[in-house]
């Protein structure tokens, strides 16, 4: 351990499906950033147990130990929950925020070890929000909504296969029958999942009230609201709409150099489940809401592409859902006007 007095210490964690790199970083009384050491562990229950023992041995017992990691898919969850249950302070940062911080360090190389070290440094330099696990119902909701999305995509694939088969020269009736039965089977699964989602939300009084506020918006149904809520863990960790839009991959990428200006487009480097959930509702609200129709038409005239204009509506719609959730209010024309402006 270093001789200087430590003010803060944080273990940065870069995690993936099979393993994670951990690196202990400290902030001294002289405001120096000191890198103490790191190690790689398997992302298993045994590996996490070994990591906790290593962390306790490596850290200064006189200073509270904190942990910082990115919210990458579901791979961070087991580790984050374990550390939380052990009583540690855990920070789970959005990938885009972590990326911007790491870029600000001007590192010339990129490795899992360096990313873990940078996250540890971020933890001692910045005042990060403390992570709290999502409620059990929201965790179950995420499983159900993701399952529904997968079944819906499977159904689309099979319907396309059936359409192609019906237009082919040689089309056995038995093949058509099997594909038709498969579509019916998938539709029944989706119906069953929808019932579970509705029941889960209805039985949770607080969650149900918030969902009812959201689905008061024209074009938004319970499955769309459930997907967005589940994927954002009830919007935990989001302080503003821009953070949320970036998390969902709706942040705008601008490419230009000198006099040359490229096309601006969304990054798509974010949660694809949210974008999938908002795709069709965006077109519905365009038809049902005069404000969003005006917004869509204006962008369509400017950009000349329907998909670009509709994506911008999705982006606005996500901001509206966030507003209704945070303010505990129903949809009304005033909010609509502000979001669609």
Automatic annotation (TrEMBL):
Domain Transposase IS116/IS110/IS902 C-terminal: 212-296
Domain of life: Bacteria
KW NADP (keyword) present: no
Coiled-coil residue spans: 176-203
A Pfam cross-reference name: Transposase_20
Molecular function as annotated in GO: DNA binding; transposase activity
Keyword annotations from UniProtKB, A to Z: Coiled coil
Listed GO biological process terms: DNA transposition
Domain Transposase IS110-like N-terminal: 11-165
Record PANTHER family: TRANSPOSASE, TRANSPOSASE FOR INSERTION SEQUENCE ELEMENT IS1111A
Protein name in UniProt: Transposase
Organism: Thermophagus xiamenensis
